[in-house]
Amino acid sequence: MFERFQVFFHNLTADRPKNSFAPDDPRIAVAALCMQVMEADGQIKDSEKKRLRKLLKEQYGLDRKQLDALIAAGQEAESSAVDYYRFTSDLKRHLNSEQRVELIGILWDIVYADGERSEMEDDAIWRIAELLGISARERIQKRQEAARRVTDVTVVQDDAD
């Protein structure tokens, strides 16, 4: 009987590529929310895509194939979602409060990747933060930190010229 269970579980995963993510993997929800924020202002810039890749790679220690698979899974989930709740409710179960605040920081980093912040991006992060149970103070603090990082990078680049 034990062998039947082994065969059953093996068959469940045998045809799944090693770089795929389970549908309930919270990393997919994170990637999908990042994409929704990127799309909030109606345009996705290369700088935002690069920032997303860098942040996900650093956050989760992924190699290139795993990163590509995560982004593809996030895009697929995002394209079928009708609102933020699908992702935020899942993340509230998987992330502690510190991790949820950090996620808001990641979202702000993506917003500022192109050097601009739009009203639509503000609104998207405000709604996501509310659903994640993040206070306005924490959300604004993370926004200010992301804006400061962009300013610091700009100053360093200007000094190098």
UniProtKB/TrEMBL annotation:
* Pfam families according to UniProt: TerB
Concerning InterPro entries, the annotation shows: DjlA_N (IPR007791), TerB-like (IPR029024)
Top-level lineage group: Bacteria
Instruction: Pinpoint the Co-chaperone DjlA N-terminal domain residues.
Output: 27-144
| Matching SUPFAM superfamilies | TerB-like
Q: Which Gene3D superfamilies match?
A: TerB-like
Q: Where are the transmembrane segments?
A: none
Q: How is this protein named in the record?
A: Co-chaperone DjlA N-terminal domain-containing protein
The species is Rhizobium grahamii
Q: What is the lineage of its organism?
A: Bacteria, Pseudomonadati, Pseudomonadota, Alphaproteobacteria, Hyphomicrobiales
